[in-house]
Design goal:
- It is built from 5 helices and 4 strands, in the order ββαβαααβα.
- It has helices at residues 34-37, 50-56, 63-74, 77-92, 108-119; strands at residues 5-9, 20-23, 41-42, 95-99.
- Strand 2, helix 1 and strand 3 form a beta-alpha-beta unit.
Length: 121
C-alpha cells in the first residue's frame, strides 16, 4: 500500500498521522520557531524559484499558470536532487508537505503533493 502524501499549513498542530514533515517553502515562516514547527526537514531546494514565487504572488487567478511553470521547474537540474529525495521519503512513509501560505490549495505544496502522488510507485 502506498504511503499517504498530504499538505497543510505549518502553523497547524503536528499530528502522528503526518509521517515525515517537510517544509517546502524557500523562506522560513514568520513567527514560527524551529521547535514549534516539528519538522523532519526543510527542503528549500524544491520550492519555486524566487522569480516565480514573486510573479505568482499567491493570486488564485494566476494559479494555473503558476502550476504549469512550477512543474516545469521541478523537471530542471536545479530541482532534481530535492525531488528525488521527496520521492524517496514518499515511498517509505506518510509525507506531509508544509507551507506558510494561507491558501494551501493554491500553493506549491498542493502542486507537489499531486505531482508526487502521480509519480510514485
Amino acid at each position: 500500500m502506498a504511503a499517504q502524501i498530504s499538505y497543510r499549513r505549518i502553523y497547524e498542530d503536528a499530528s502522528p498521522q503526518d509521517g515525515q514533515r517537510v517544509l517546502v517553502d524557500r523562506v522560513w515562516p514568520r513567527g514560527m520557531t524551529k521547535e514549534a514547527a516539528h519538522l523532519d526537514e526543510w527542503l528549500r531546494e524544491v520550492a519555486p524559484s524566487t522569480g516565480l514565487r514573486q510573479w505568482y504572488g499567491h493570486d488564485p487567478e494566476r494559479f494555473a499558470e503558476f502550476r504549469r511553470r512550477y512543474l516545469a521547474e521541478l523537471r530542471d537540474a536545479d530541482h532534481r536532487e530535492a525531488v528525488g529525495h521527496l520521492r524517496e521519503l514518499a515511498a517509505h512513509d506518510a509525507l506531509t508537505l508544509l507551507t506558510a501560505t494561507r491558501d494551501v490549495d493554491h500553493s506549491q505544496a498542493a502542486v507537489l503533493a499531486e505531482w508526487l502522488a502521480k509519480r510514485k510507485h
